[in-house]
Design a protein that fits this description.
The protein is an alpha/beta fold. Helix content is 34%, strand content 24%. It comes from Mytilus coruscus.
Length: 181
């Protein structure tokens, strides 16, 4: 379903127009799946603000059923950065099943901020009434934690072990802490 917006596959030069065309096609091809697309506003956004404007959220019908049926206990947010041409973080919403972690929703935001992350979650929450996880696991990132705690008030946020260990190892290697002298 997903494809790259390469020069050969472009309908128009503007990537946002290309994405709008793709979203319309995906909606037509998969009418039971959910797509939300908000392009960057025509009026330039102040780059010093937390708000960017761009938001793309996707959830298949199957993912929605899984989330409502099993996603009330522990949810994991896996965030991916700097893996493509544009510096736009991808957030995968997952939970552990008897056969491994399953993605139950995804969103891409234009700028990593609490407000933008909350906006992505708000779309997923609107699509899945009654979704209220007891626990949420995420990176040690104040923007992610703040967005989750603000939108899911009764939810306890835990830090992902892998990311915690990764952050600790990076901190230990930094020369400014004078640990290798």
């Amino acid at each position: 379903m997903y494809c790259m917006l390469t020069t050969e596959g472009r309908f128009r030069k503007n990537d946002q127009q290309n994405l709008q065309i793709l979203v319309n096609k995906w909606k037509e091809d998969s009418p039971k799946d959910k797509f939300f697309y908000q392009p960057v506003p025509e009026i330039p956004v102040d780059i010093n603000t937390d708000y960017h404007g761009f938001l793309f959220v996707h959830q298949t019908e199957f993912q929605s059923r899984l989330l409502i049926k099993y996603g009330q206990e522990i949810i994991l947010m896996d965030s991916t950065y700097n893996t493509m041409q544009y510096e736009m973080p991808l957030h995968l919403i997952c939970f552990l099943t008897n056969v491994g972690y399953k993605v139950v929703g995804a969103f891409v935001i234009g700028k990593e901020s609490r407000l933008n992350i909350k906006e992505g979650f708000a779309v997923l929450k609107k699509w899945n009434p009654g979704w209220s996880p007891n626990y949420f696991m995420c990176d040690n990132d104040g923007r992610e934690i703040g967005a989750i705690e603000n939108l899911f008030e009764d939810c306890t946020v835990a830090l992902c072990d892998f990311r915690r260990e990764q952050a600790w190892e990076r901190w230990l290697r930094e020369k400014k802490h004078h640990l290798s002298d």
